[in-house]
Amino acid sequence: MNVLVINCGSSSLKYQFINSDTEEVMAKGLCERIGIENSQITYQPKDGDKDITLVDMPDHTKAVEMVIKKLTDPEIGVVSSLDEIDAVGHRIVHGGEKFATSVIIDDEVMKAIEECNDLAPLHNPANLIGINSCKALMPGVPMVAVFDTAFHQTMPPKAFLYGVPYDYYEKFKVRRYGFHGTSHDFVSAEAAKFLGKDRKDLKIIVCHLGNGASISAVKNGQSVDTSMGLTPLEGLIMGTRSGDLDPAIVTFLAQKLNVPTDEVINILNKKSGVLGLSKVSSDFRDIEKAYNEGNELAKIALETYSYRVAKYIGSYVAAMNGVDVIAYTAGVGENTAIVRAMIAEYLKYLGTNIDPEKNKIRGEIVELSDPGSKVVTMIVPTNEELAICRETVRLVK
Ligand code: ADP
Predict the structure, then answer these.
(1) What's the 356 CA to ligand 1 centre distance in angstroms?
(2) For position 377, what pLDDT does the model report?
């Protein structure tokens, strides 16, 4: 089966075209600046060169049209016609409490996704536009919605409730939802498979450390807690997001900076995290370089970041009354050895050491701790597109 995986943002559209039988990515790419001047599509076929085309894409329908055009291009395409696209899998950011699993998209599902718009005002409307564009251009092709929040719907109330009046949960659904669920699910499953164990028998802590970062406690195959909350702002320190802080800081800063609270939230989302702390960059490659050159703020940013992750790991050990596996994933988790090493210093009490030689490995599944360690520490590369492809096939077949 050939599956087109679509991840639609407000002005971008990432795509992968996957043969689900071989799980090979036949082509992938990105449409950027949709609805803005100088929009372009990047297209990378499996065995060919990267193709970048500047093309006017006033809306997402035009972007999807361009993706199909590239996939079926007689020169650089990977299929001969639209008929060879068997299904489309859509990444949807927020499923609220309505979706605890992936679903085939129909009118009722569209309506339910729309009802979650106010929980993710930047993301869900864009995701819906992506679905509508695909429906318009590929009528009759089955489509599946895979939600970032779904995997975490197994959290018990003690984990998802905030200490605010219960009415706000009942009336407004104010609660922890968590995100990156597709990745936490995929990585915990891959970790168990690699270790030759059943995920149902394990307590796994997944550290998804990318631009956005979240951590989850996966007990017996189910998410029992995670660090992101009502929105992706809560939890770990991220590339540009602050993560946890005293909520009173919002009004305090609004007064000091003489800006509305919305603007403070914007600062906490876009100008904070390791970018704000280090004054260097949100990219860990830049921060690591600055740290190696003796930059004091880069050191503080790395230490503060790692300390926060270590504290969360400690709290999830308590939440699960133990831990068997700690798995690092995503851009930083898979690549940044210094962060893993700094975190490991706090976790020696768990009986998990990181082998410094193995810690140099990047982006492949590997056990970092010594064989026979009580707690296994590992790198498990995430692959959200493949996970979405697998979900799509599972539901469509
Ligand atoms: P996103 O949340 O956008 O999917 P990623 O998982 O791709 O993010 O992670 C992006 C971050 O991962 C980058 O900002 C960078 O800090 C880090 N990163 C990616 N590749 C490397 C690398 N080879 N070495 C060090 N850090 C890396």
Answers:
(1) 21
(2) 97
- The finding on whether 285 has its CB within 6 A of some atom of ligand 1 is yes
Enter the tokens of residue 217: 């406690």
**Is 335 near ligand 1, meaning CB less than 6 Å away?**
yes
**Does ligand 1 lie within 6 Å of residue 236's CB atom?**
no
Distance from residue 135's CA to the centre of ligand 1 (Å): 32
Ligand 1 contact via 95 beta carbon (within 6 Å): no
Q: Which amino acid belongs to residue 305?
A: Y
d(C-alpha 22, C-alpha 86), whole Å: 15
Q: Is the dihedral of CA 94, 100, 101, 107 positive or negative?
A: negative
Locate tokens 């009046």: which residue? 165
Secondary structure element (H or E) that encloses residue 179, with its range: none
Question: Where do the DSSP E strands lie in the chain?
Answer: 2-8, 13-19, 24-32, 40-45, 51-54, 87-92, 103-104, 143-147, 203-209, 213-219, 222-226, 325-329, 366-367, 376-379
CA 273 to CA 240: how far, in whole Å? 4
- Please say whether the beta carbons of 354 and 327 come within 8 A: no
Q: Please indicate whether residue 148 is annotated as part of the active site.
A: yes
d(CA 103, CA 185): 16
Query: Which residues face 206 on adjacent strands?
Result: 216, 327
Instruction: Kindly report the protein residue whose alpha carbon is nearest to atom 11 of ligand 1.
Output: 331
Cα–Cα distances (Å) from 224 to 99, 142, 180, 264, 333, in that order, read 16, 32, 14, 31, 21
pTM: 0.95
- Which letter does DSSP use for residue 219 in this model? E
pLDDT digits (tens, 9 = 90+) for 30-83: 999 999 999 999 999 999 999 999 999 999 999 999 999 999 999 999 999 999
Does pLDDT of 9 surpass 90?
A: no
- pLDDT of amino acid 121: 85
* CA 273 vs CA 206, 251, 270, 339, 389: distances in Å: 20, 19, 8, 15, 32
Sheet holding 213-219, edge to edge: 222-226, 213-219, 203-209, 325-329, 376-379, 366-367
Q: What is the pLDDT of residues 175-187, one digit of tens each?
A: 999 999 999 999 9
The closest alpha carbon to 60, from 114, 126, 123, belongs to 126
Around Cβ 58, how many Cβ atoms within 10 Å? 11
Which atom of ligand 1 has the smallest separation from the CA of 212? 2
